C-alpha cells in the first residue's frame, strides 16, 4: 500500500490509501498519533521502513480513479489527484471535493475482499524466507486503529 495524499489542517492528517499499481483508492484514514520509530511492525514487504502510528479509518471502500481524475492539483503541476505520490498535500477545496466523491460513491468491493489473498501470500513469503515473523492482524488491542466494516 502507499499513501496517495495527505490533507492537513492544524495538525490533522488524512491519508487516502491506494494499492501500489492499482486503479482505485481503497480508503481514507485520520492519523491519530505521531510516528513511533522505535517499533518494528514487520508488516512491510521490504524491511526498509520502520515505525508505527495510530489511525482512525473513515472509509474503507474501492473508488475507481476515473471518479476522481477530474480533480486537478495546482500545487502539483495541475496533475490529476490520482497521479499523487506519498505525502502529496491537497488544497482544502480539492480535498473537500475528493472527500465528497468518496463519501457519495456507491461501492461493491473493498480491500477486505482481498485479505485472504494477501494473508496467503504473506504465509508463502514467510515460509520461503524461513521467517518466524507473525503476519499482522488487527487484534483490537488499540481501538483507535481498528479497521471498521465498510461504510457507505
What does this protein look like?
- The protein is α+β, with helices and mostly antiparallel strands.
- The chain contains two helices and six strands.
- It has helices at 92-104, 115-129, and strands spanning 2-9, 12-18, 24-31, 55-64, 72-73, 79-80.
- The strands form two sheets. The chain has a four-stranded antiparallel sheet with strand order 1-2-3-4, with helices on one face. Strands 5-6 form a two-stranded antiparallel ribbon.
- Strand 2 and strand 3 (24-31) form a beta hairpin.
- The longest helix is centred in the C-terminal third of the chain and has 15 residues, at 115-129.
- The protein is globular.
- Residues 1-5, 135-146 and 148-152 have low confidence and may be disordered.
Amino acid at each position: 500500500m502507499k499513501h496517495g495524499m495527505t490533507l492537513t489542517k492544524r495538525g490533522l492528517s488524512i491519508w487516502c490509501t491506494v494499492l501500489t499499481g492499482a486503479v482505485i483508492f481503497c480508503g481514507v484514514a485520520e492519523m491519530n498519533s505521531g510516528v513511533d520509530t522505535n517499533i518494528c511492525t514487520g508488516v512491510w514487504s521490504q524491511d526498509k521502513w520502520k515505525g508505527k502510528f495510530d489511525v482512525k479509518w473513515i472509509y474503507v471502500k474501492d473508488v475507481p480513479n476515473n471518479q476522481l481524475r477530474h480533480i486537478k492539483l495546482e500545487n502539483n503541476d495541475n496533475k490529476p489527484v490520482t497521479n499523487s505520490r506519498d505525502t502529496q498535500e491537497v488544497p482544502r477545496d480539492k480535498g473537500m471535493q475528493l472527500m465528497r466523491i468518496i463519501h457519495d460513491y456507491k461501492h461493491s468491493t473493498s480491500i477486505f475482499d482481498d485479505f485472504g489473498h494477501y494473508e496467503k501470500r504473506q504465509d508463502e513469503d514467510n515460509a520461503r524466507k524461513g521467517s518466524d515473523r507473525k503476519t499482522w492482524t488487527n487484534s483490537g488491542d488499540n481501538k483507535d486503529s481498528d479497521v471498521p466494516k465498510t461504510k457507505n
